[in-house]
Amino acid sequence: MLLRTMKLPLPAMAAVVALCAASYLLAVWTHPAPPLPASSLAAVPCNTRQPPAPAASKNDTALDFSIHHGASEEDAAEAGAPPSRRVPACDAGYSEHTPCEGQRWSLRQPRRRFAYRERHCPPPAERRRCLVPAPRGYRAPLRWPRSRDAAWYANAPHEELVTEKGVQNWIRRNGDVLRFPGGGTMFPHGADRYIDDIAAAAGITLGGGGAVRTALDTGCGVASWGAYLLSRDVLTMSFAPKDTHEAQVLFALERGVPAMLGIMATKRLPYPARAFDMAHCSRCLIPWSKYNGLYMIEVDRVLRPGGYWVLSGPPVNWERHFKGWKRTPEDLSSEQSAIEAIAKNLCWTKVQQMGDIAVWQKPINHVSCKASRNKLGGLGFCNSNQDPDAGWYVNMEECITPLPEVSGPGDVAGGEVKRWPERLTSPPPRIAGGSLGSSVTVDTFIKDSEMWRRRVDRYKGVSGGLAEKGRYRNLLDMNAGLGGFAAALVDDPVWVMNVVPTAAVANTLGVIYERGLIGTYQDWCEAMSTYPRTYDLIHAYSLFTMYKDRCEMEDILLEMDRVLRPEGTVIFRDDVDVLVKIKNIADGMRWESRIVDHEDGPMQREKILVSVKSYWTA
C-alpha cells in the first residue's frame, strides 16, 4: 500500500527494491534452517519420550510469505491462522483399522473366488474422519537388522499365530517381545536353508548380483522368506489377505519387511507386467489348478521374461505327504497334473522338482510359444489393445499377456536388465526402448537421478530422523516417478514402497521394477492396502497439486496419518500455496510442522514442508 502512495522516481524505486531483496537473501544465507532433531533414545520405550519438535531455534530463520515467495495474501494470512479444525481421535477399537479390507461393506461382496477379501473401500458417507490411535503401550520398533527377528508385542498384540504356528517356527512370544525364528510351514528348519534349496533346484545363485533381484511372495505369512532374502540383496514384495491368520502382514511390517494386504481373487495384482524375477508360493493356499489356471496366468503376467515360479507344499511331493495333508493320492495327483498342464500351456519350462520344491521358468520371449499356439491351439493371447501394465481394479482374464516383440528367438522381450546393483543406475529398458514416449529419455533419466540425489541431501539437512542412519526403516514415496527418491537412499538401511498414483500422467512403475526397486499402484482418494503405522517416513512430491479437485486434501492427510508411525516424519514438496493449506490442516492433526526453502534457494515457489507426528496412544 505504501509503494502505491509514494511518488518516487523510477531509479530510486528500483534501488529500494534491490536493497530489500539483498537484505532478505543475506539473512537466509547467514541463518540456514537446521534439521529437525531426531531422538537418540531408540532403546527407551516410546511412551517415555516427547516427540521431536521442529520448532525454530536461535539459528533458524522462519520463512515468511512476502512477495519473494509469491504466496497470495489469503495464504499468508492462512499460514499464521489457527488450524482449520482439531481432528478428533478415533475410538481405541480402530487401532488396526484398514478401511478397504475386512470391513462390513466388504462382507456384502460375493463369496465366489474370495471376492469379498479384495479391496472394497467405504462410501464417502461411511469414511472415518478421525485420527487412528496407536495401541496403549506402543513403542518405537526395534532397529534393523534386530527387527528382522523380533518385535514388540504391544505393537501387534495378537497370539493366534503364536498358538497355531509356533511349532512351525513362524512366531513365538517371549514376554513383551515377539520372536520370529525364520521358519515356515514348508521350511521349519529355517528360511536360509530353504532359500539355498530353492537356488539349488533352480540352478541359480540367489543373491550376490545373481539373476534374481525382485521377488513376489504370494500368501506370505509373516514374510520370513522375504526377510531372509534381504541379506542377499533380493527385494521381495510380500502380500497376504486379512483373513483367519490375523495380523500376519502387520507382523511383517513391524519386522521392517516390505509387505501389503492383498489376495489373488478376481482382480489383477497391483503391479505392472514383467515386474518380478521370481514368484514364490510356500503352501500359500492359492488354488492354482482351478478357474482354468487363472492365477498362474496372472503370475505369468507379472513375471519377467526368463523369471522363475517356485512352488512348495501341496501338491508337490504328494507321494510323501498325502497322509499328513489328509488328502487322497488321487486328488493330489490330479491337482499336480493340472498345474503341469497349465504351466505347459503358458510355455513355461519345468526346471526341476527337488524334494518338496518345484521350479518352473518363463520363456525369454514368445516366438516359439506363438508358433505352437498357431499349430496346436490352447490358451490364447490377450488382445493387443489390453494394457499389460494395468493393475488397478482390472479383472483377470483367461489369456496370456503377450511379451513385446523381438528380432530373433534369442532376444529377451522388452530388453534385458542389468545385474544388481548396476541395474539401479543403468537406463531401464522401458526408457532406452522409448516405451514411455519422447518426454522420458535416457538423458531425462540421468538428470532425474542426479536431481534426486541433491534433493535427498537437502532432506537429510532438514530432517534429523532421515539423516540418522537406522532411525527409519519403512519408507513410502507417494508419487515415485522414476524411483529417484528410493535410488538416492539405496545405501541407507531402508526400503521404499514406490507408489505410482493412478492420476499420474505416465505409468512409470515398470521402470521402477526394472531398476530393481519395488512398488504398487494407488489412487490416493482411497486408503492403502496396509495396516496403520506401516511407515516411518512418507514422501509426497507434488501429490496435492496432482490431486487438486480430485478429492479432499484432508482425506489424503488423514490416510497419511493412519499409515504413519508415531514420531514419524512426512516430507512434502509442492507449491508454496499448497503447502500453506496442508500445514493449516496438519496443525490440527497433532503434527508439528515447518516450511523450509527449496535446495536452490528462497526464490523458488516450490518449498518443502517437514512434519513430525506426535507420540500418543489410545
TrEMBL record:
<dbReference type="GO" id="GO:0008168">
    <property type="term" value="F:methyltransferase activity"/>
</dbReference>
<keyword id="KW-0808">Transferase</keyword>
<keyword id="KW-0735">Signal-anchor</keyword>
<dbReference type="Pfam" id="PF03141">
    <property type="entry name" value="Methyltransf_29"/>
</dbReference>
<dbReference type="GO" id="GO:0005768">
    <property type="term" value="C:endosome"/>
</dbReference>
<dbReference type="GO" id="GO:0016020">
    <property type="term" value="C:membrane"/>
</dbReference>
<protein>
    <recommendedName>
        <fullName>Methyltransferase</fullName>
        <ecNumber>2.1.1.-</ecNumber>
    </recommendedName>
</protein>
<keyword id="KW-0489">Methyltransferase</keyword>
<dbReference type="GO" id="GO:0032259">
    <property type="term" value="P:methylation"/>
</dbReference>
<dbReference type="InterPro" id="IPR029063">
    <property type="entry name" value="SAM-dependent_MTases_sf"/>
</dbReference>
<dbReference type="InterPro" id="IPR004159">
    <property type="entry name" value="Put_SAM_MeTrfase"/>
</dbReference>
<dbReference type="GO" id="GO:0005802">
    <property type="term" value="C:trans-Golgi network"/>
</dbReference>
<comment type="similarity">
    <text>Belongs to the methyltransferase superfamily.</text>
</comment>
<keyword id="KW-0812">Transmembrane</keyword>
<keyword id="KW-0325">Glycoprotein</keyword>
